[in-house]
Write a structure and sequence with these properties.
Elements (H helix, E strand, L loop, with lengths): L7 H28 L5 H5 L4 H51 L5 H22 L2 E2 L2 E2 L14 H11 L6 H13 L4 H6 L10 E2 L5 E2 L8 H17 L7 H58 L3 H26 L3 H5 L1
Antiparallel strand pairs: 1-2, 3-4
Length: about 325
């Protein structure tokens, strides 16, 4: 009787080949279940990468926009925080100053001016606020503070008022110092850029414009009134109570008007914040759509892959057991 079989060496090679194949299959399935993607992407796509390339390009672009959205959102929040503090000072000081201008209430007026005057330094600090390493209100000069130190501003403004004895003259001189292009405010107080901060590109077609400058009218008005309050507290027009009261009342009314203008500026920033937030939602939805498209191209079914992984593990275990038995087979056991 003729018997066909494999020799020991051939059988060893065959077992090794089976083991290697089983281990490769196991490694492939482990990779797929851990990444959620096909291990052999070229085979899965049949060599056509155009669809996958388009999806990956879209995801890369959205990731870049996501970074800008975070940056612009933080920058806008920083602006709002600073302006909220400034506005709080306005709402506190304006009505108090107007109410303090009463006959026989000189001490109340002095105390109210002292409180308002002390706010000037805080306001300069708030306007000089930063988001990370970027100045909030200095335009494209992001490395610079927006304003000079409060003491430097008051010193320069005080010099411009030397010899003036009436509320009207002081008001005119202060308006000139602050509002004349290239004048005292532009040359001494404002340290930022004349160019607003470049818009944040938050989507392919959308921008967030956070371009309020410390030199804009809304901010000048705030600084003008609080610098006057500080100078009145420091003795400006102290020789004429009537003129001092008149100017203090004007300052209080100016603060009330400045608060309205600042509210409008904050509203514009709020509009940009809403635009940023809606773009975040829209980009998130687009990202989910692209991830779904990528899964349809190269994704694997986790349940099916887990089942195949368990089958491959069981098959490999069987091969290991068979190999161990064959390795321990003796001549006497073979002949038994």
């Amino acid at each position: 009787m003729t018997m066909n079989g494999l020799g020991d060496l051939a059988q060893s090679y065959a077992m090794r080949a089976h083991n290697l194949s089983a281990r490769r299959e196991l490694d492939t399935l482990v990779s797929e279940i851990s990444t959620g993607q096909a291990a052999d992407i070229p085979k899965r796509l049949r060599g056509d990468f155009s669809g996958l390339a388009a999806v990956e390009a879209g995801l890369t672009q959205l990731k870049a926009y996501s970074t800008v959205l975070v940056e612009s959102g933080n920058f806008a929040a920083g602006m709002q925080t600073a302006l909220e503090a400034v506005q709080q000072n306005l709402s506190d000081s304006g009505p108090k100053l107007v109410a303090a201008v009463k006959p026989g209430e000189e001490r109340l007026l002095d105390a109210t001016l002292a409180e308002a005057g002390h706010h000037f330094d805080a306001i300069v600090g708030q306007i000089n606020g930063r988001d990370g390493d970027r100045s909030l209100f200095a335009g494209n000069a992001v490395d610079n503070p927006a304003l000079a130190p409060a003491d430097d501003i008051l010193s320069a403004l005080s010099t411009a008022l030397v010899g003036l004895t009436s509320a009207a003259d002081v008001r005119t001189a202060v308006d000139t110092w602050f509002d004349t292009p290239g004048g005292g405010f532009d040359s001494i107080a404002y340290l930022g850029s004349d160019d607003p901060l470049d818009p944040f590109q938050i989507s392919e077609v959308g921008e967030a414009k956070l371009d309020l400058l410390a030199r804009d009218d809304e901010m000048r008005a705030v600084l003008k009134e609080f610098s006057l309050a500080a100078l009145l507290d420091d003795g400006l027009l102290s020789g004429d109570l009537t003129q001092r009261q008149r100017l203090a009342e004007e300052v209080g009314l100016g603060m009330i008007g400045a608060e309205r203008d600042l509210t409008a500026a904050r509203s514009r920033i709020g509009t940009e914040q809403a635009h940023i937030e809606s773009t975040v939602v829209r980009n998130s939805a687009e990202r989910s759509s692209l991830l779904t498209a990528r899964d349809s191209l190269i994704g694997v079914d986790p349940f099916e892959t887990a089942t195949r992984l368990e089958d491959a593990r069981a098959q490999l275990q069987i091969l290991y057991n068979m190999t161990a038995r064959l390795a321990g087979l003796s001549l006497s056991e073979y002949l038994r």
